[in-house]
Amino acid sequence: MAQTWLISGPPGCGKTTWMLNTLKNHQGQRGYLRLPGISTTGLEQADDGAIDQTYLQDQITDLIDLSNTDQAPNDQEQQLNLIELTQFEPPSSSALEGVDSSVIQQLEALGLRLDRALHFGRDDDLPKDDTLEFSRLEAWSMPLERCVWDPNSLSSFWFELVNGAYGDVYRAKALMNLPDGRAFFCNWMVSQGGSQFLPLESVAPPDGRPKRCSMLSVQGKALDGGGIQATIADCLLSDEVLELHQEPQRQQAELTQAL
Amino acid sequence: MSHAVISCLHANLAATEAVLADIDRQGIEHITCLGDLVGYGPQPNEVVELIRQRQIPTCQGCWDEDIIDGLNSCECSYPSQLAERRGHRAHQWTDAQLSEENKAFLASLPMTVRRERLLFVHGSPNSQHEYLLPDMDAFAALERVESSGANTLFCGHTHMPYVRELSGGSIRVKVKQAGEEAASERKLELPMRRIVNAGSVGEPRHGSTEATYVIHHEDSDEIEIREVAYDIERTCRAIVDGGLPEVFAWRLSHGFEYAERADDASHVCER
User: Fold this and answer.
1) Does the predicted model carry a pTM greater than 0.80?
2) A138-246 falls under which CATH superfamily?
3) Hey, of B77, B78, B80, B85, which one would you mutate to test binding to chain A, going by the most A CBs within 10 A of its CB?
4) If you write DSSP's letter for every residue of A158-212 in order, what string do you get?
5) What is the percent of chain A where pLDDT is above 90?
């Protein structure tokens, strides 16, 4: 029988990282699902888009998308299904009864039944560090599909973003495309020392704009969405500039093939 | 006698006033300015007029040059598209604000100011755009000072104040003439030379928000690097009120330069 676990916790506590490591170490089939978070008064949920899903799928190529009931079975022998849920407050009970009924209903609709429910900051099976308590949280997000960044501009923008140029940012994560076809999972949390910039395994061909998911998701206080948007507009490459980057890459690839 | 050297004011009136007040308090009458009176900051006319009113000998900085000659000398050294666009925006804003009279003043500024064996430049004796970084190759640094005929070269542009003494250098030359069996050897002992960077009044980049300048105590030939606190909030308000990008105010108030320096800081644009 498959095992299906619900992993919940506040933003930036390390859910995705823990799930990635757990799934990578699992020998059997592996499934993943991210549920919309449970909002609390004054605590806005971030629109993740499909940042986590895309990153995990890139790192674990045979990862089963549990939201797609047609894709694959979810109850194979030795299968481990991990369900991610952003939840600010710990559930009322550590047992499965503590799980919000709306979550149970969503899972039942997908043919999933929970075996365990673990919450960051409460359960000893999960890492204890980096769990923040939020009293107020705004969310801001921006879809960036088919957008490609000037690499040095991305570095400057991210520095400004996480250091407070556009409001008090507590949490920022993104998938960003670079002109050489690489993409990076950018991850920052106020409680941690620095940012993570993790390259995706998949590299897009140097032929126009990549089609993979790309998005920026920010949570914090007094966020200046207009300012973020204006700076991003200054960082993204035009078709002409992108072509200037990609043409030499194509020529190099052709040369390598010819050799 | 002592004289003060200020540089890179960048249209920051509060910082300029605070530095001049600090100089005045010490009874120093002679001041030299190494340029970049304008650029990025919110009060270009006020800063230029203050320098003109005080009749401070000034050489032309890269921003002073660009605002006169058009933006065609600095853009290739921008480290990123974001920095380039912000730089262009600041250039256009400054160009629109600056009076014709003040532009004419900037256009009249010399590339260098010389007082006996002291040479004052914005970037280097070669160009307003060349960075003389504190860790640049010693031979190249010595060449810049020696070829300009100076004992001490005062520069700015990097926004990081420093004093670098270039001593103990020697050049050994072996020459073999046609018909001679052995090469003749000649060794030149190079005299001590010095590069002094005055830092920046209006856009500090040395890890603090305080304005910097230097004092040359001529009797002892010692250099003193000064840091002066100023009303940053006043300048930040003027940035926002003037319609410059708000992020400029954030960067200034955190001690970050408006636009990063190019990766290859030794790059000099060939116009």
Assistant:
1) yes
2) CobW-like, C-terminal domain (3.30.1220.10)
3) B80
4) HHHHHTTBTBEEEEEEEEEE-TTS-EEEEEEETTSSS-EEEE-S----SSSS--S
5) 56
